[in-house]
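Supplementary Methods, section 5.1.

A reviewer requested that the exact input to the structure prediction be made available. We therefore reproduce it here, unchanged from the version used in the analyses.
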Amino acid sequence: MPARPRLPNSAAEIQETTLRKELGLRDLVLAQVLCVVGSTWVGVAAKLGRAHVAYWLGAMLLFYVPLAVVVIYLNRLMPLEGGLYQWAKAGFGEMAGFLTAWNLWVYAVIVMGAIVFVVPTDLAYMFGPSAAWLPASKPATLALTGAVIVGITMVAIRGLNIGKWLHNAGSIMILAAYAILLGLPLWALLRGDIPRFDAIPWQTPQPSWFGLAIFGQMAVGALSGFEYVAILAGECRSAARTIGQSVMISAPVIALMFILGTSSVLTFVGARPINVIGPIPQTMVLALGTTGAASWAAKLGIFLLMARAVGASSLIFTGLTRLPMTAGWDHLLPACFTRLHPRWRTPVNSILFVAALAVALVLLSMLGVREQEASQLLGASSIAHYAIAYIGLFALPLLGSAAFRAALPGWVKLVSAAGLASSLVALAITVYPIVDVVSRATYAAKIGAVVVIANLAGVGIYYAGRARASRLE
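The structure derived from this sequence is encoded token-by-token as follows.
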């Protein structure tokens, strides 16, 4: 294998020795499933009808496979805490590395809010008509999401020796929830409730802006996340080997869950409006009803989805608190972000800062809009930032430093080009709404403003950090 590219300094390698190595291959496989598989994406894809399989396959070919390949190769070259931040810094320089990590960090803060946003909707489906008011109630939504964020903050401070069990439990629960979802058509066939079930339907997609918008969300939204676990490389055992293995083991399982799950949603929702916040609970209630013995299976499935939301939020929260820590190692953020808890060795100041920011973001997303639009604003804004981070990731094998380009095979560069093109499309199309919104122009303006302001803030923070680092030298 070619020589590994070197960082401008070895701060990360020195500092990460103070972190505990808590994560093994089993933990990483379950973390990949938890991080990638969400409950909303099968509803988003179901809006395409029977053409969803063609779109899933296209997104997998043009984005999912390139992402897996690039992450595996880059992680072998540089298995360091901070993941994409360290790769971009070595390949493009400090400022580009910081801004790449900044967009990944902003994405994670936003998407964590989007994930916990499903809790009120799931509770409404689980408890039935008496709880239908919950998702539309801003005080109730803020109280429920705030309680989840407080809980995962406490787990994050305690560390991955506890957190990994919450993450593993969340992964097992999403697998169990999908097992129920995928079993619903078989149950309905046995009972004679449906005449047939097309597990893998086919319809040639018709080009449209709507379809392209869905494709962008399916690619950079649904099929993303493999690189996220690499942020925790400094807390993994044998990171250069196990992170790549976890990607290869989890990828086919994830692909099947998404395709078959979307077909199950379509089978029962049909021509009804799809609830993009809670499509799986909606499907379970339609298939099993709200009364009788069968309804308890639906309630169990919805409970499993809520538990997964908590576990996924905890995993993403843990990862995003490590990015300020690693930037602090390079003196680009105040030293307080690098301070570890004296007993549990976790970045406690970074954890508390991110928790406060996440609560504020959930509150701001609800101002002046309905719950479906608030959820989509969070989702689309997160995808925009994620697409920017992915543009940096896929550009590394093509435009990175000579050491990076020399260390990667030519075919990796080819698949990187496909991933780069998909990321650019996803970024451009994020302003197109896939649900009814109060104003299309306002919707697009909000997303654009978030992206522009966040990146201007990132540039300001970088230069302030550089000035601080110069005074320390």
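Residues 366 and 374 are 5 Å apart (CA to CA). These observations are discussed further in the main text.
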